[in-house]
Amino acid sequence: xxxxxxxTPDAIRPPGGPAGSAAGGAAGPATGxxxxxxxxxxxxxxxxxxEPVLEIRGLxxxxxxxxxxxxxxxxxxxxxxxxxxxxxxxxxxxxxxxESGCGKSTVAKLLVGLERxxxxxxxxxxxxxxxxxxxxxxxxxxxxxxxxxxxxTSLNPRMTVGDIIGEPYDIHPEVAPKGxxxxxxxxxxDVVGLNPEYLNRYPHQFSGGQRQRIGIARxxxxxxxxxxxxxxxxxxxxxxxxxxxxxxxxxxxxxxLSYVFIAHxxxxxxxxxxxxxxxxxxxxxxSGTDEQIYDHPTHPYTQALLSAVPVPDPxxxxxxTRILLxxxxxxxADPPSGCRFRTRCWKAQExxxxxxPPLEVPPRFATPDAGPAAHPSACHFAxxxxxxxxx
Length: 391
Ligand SMILES: Nc1ncnc2c1ncn2[C@@H]1O[C@H](COP(=O)(O)OP(=O)(O)OP(=O)(O)O)[C@@H](O)[C@H]1O
Ligand code: SF4
Ligand SMILES: [Mg+2]
Known about the structure:
Residues 1-49 are annotated as: Disordered. By secondary structure, the chain is an alpha/beta fold. The chain contains 13 helices and ten strands. It has a six-stranded mixed beta sheet with strand order 6-7-8-3-9-10, with helices on both faces. The longest helix has 18 residues, at 238-255. The radius of gyration is 21 Å and the shape is globular. Residues 1-46 have low confidence and may be disordered. The structure holds adenosine-5'-triphosphate, iron/sulfur cluster and magnesium ion. The site of iron/sulfur cluster (SF4) has 13 residues, from loops.
């Protein structure tokens, strides 16, 4: 079921604001991606409400590499996330894209507290939550929830749907007193387009898309402000992906949610995101609005990623140049010096091995007439190159 109008029950109305703002905007341009095109009311360019709800500064997560059985000795570290900074504004969707192993899930886990950072700050409404513990941390964590990739493994098969969705209330009973839980869980089922009477069923009785709706309902249970969705549609059939992306967009508008949306599929990310960050080997390579990243990329890695996106129009397909990257992604335990992309970059020069390019607007584009090319790009030799044919 895909309800046209989502109810806005009291149980999950966000704190401090009216619920129920209408989804706006015409559908985005044709992308050739069946998921993106099936999604109604595209959000391309939908602005957030201004103030940052999350400010990530110099986030680092190193996993120790150890050797020895009796005497474990640290012999190195996997630098999964190695100095990542970005803001998430209220009501916006920030997409994070990048190849497998570049650190996307680790960023997600750090944001929701499933991993502790090695260094860096995660500021929620101005307060660095990496410094909090106990009650104060618990109170903040309630506002940042996660939706996982695989709806088949992320739901406990031995628990009923009601218990799965209501489980967060065990940790935060103040949100839903015991006598009120059943009603609240039923409201959540309704909100995500499932029959409220499914409360006593088990996960195996649902399809993949329905299970992901259950995962989303669970993510909403504590009335969070921020949802970190780690590849929320990657494990689903293409037709079902569109429904789940639709649902996420509607929920965002209804409950004024801010999303960090992680995905492999660049077309889906473009469709749902207001801004996009491109990640490579533990760092951000480029960030900007969806238009800046997709139509005016200046970092060679982004250009290579985009050049591999399928183009439906045969003429456009003919006219574009595919950038084939040579070599494998280096190990995050031993990343290249300077620019991490240099071992695969066709433009690499000596400077690239010597100096880490900062993620900032390249000086050559820091002029009033630079247009959409003026956005942060961690490349010493950033230049604009359109790789996705104009639509
Ligand atoms: N608990 C851990 N211990 C050691 N290494 C880890 C751990 N978790 C992740 N890693 C490593 O950190 C790097 C980043 O992993 P991560 O799962 O964040 O990547 P990803 O971008 O989400 O990849 P994918 O697209 O495949 O999901 C990988 O090299 C991974 O092997
Ligand atoms: S800094 Fe050098 S190696 Fe890195 S992307 Fe730019 S040109 Fe390529
Ligand atoms: Mg991942």
